[in-house]
Amino acid sequence: MELLFAVLGGLILGAVAHVVLPWRSSRGSLLGPAVGGIVAAVLWEALTWAGWQYDATWIWVVALVGAGVVALVAEWVLGKRRTAADAAYYERVKASGA
After folding, report:
1. How many domains does the chain fold into?
2. 24 DSSP 8-state letter
């Protein structure tokens, strides 16, 4: 049951990452929630296999902060990369006269 709550927290943090960062129109709206949920699930399982207790504070902090940070980084990198790729494509098409 705790894994469900951790994944839900990762989904919410990923959705917040999508909203607060620029370039919303250049990336998918489910990218942040998907990355946040997956990272929260993987971190939660890794930490439980490492022996961390479900009711301890640090497992929640690490899983949720890790999910939020990875979602922010993924959204930032992909947003900047997509913008740069779109600009390069536009210049290439403009130069070819199309």
Report:
1. 1
2. G
Q: Is the CA virtual torsion 42, 31, 70, 61 positive or negative?
A: negative
- Owner of token pair 């947003």: 79
Q: Can you say whether the dihedral through the CA atoms of 52, 12, 18, 78 is positive or negative?
A: positive
Distances in Å between the Cα of 2 and the Cα atoms of 15, 41, 58 are 20, 10, 14
Global pTM?
0.89
Amino acid at 80: K
Domain extent, residue 28, equals 2-96
What tokens appear for 91 in the block?
């210049």
Main-chain phi, psi angles of 27, to 5 degrees: -145, 165
Question: pLDDT tens digits for 55-68?
Answer: 999 999 999 999 99
* Beta strand ranges found along the chain (DSSP E): none
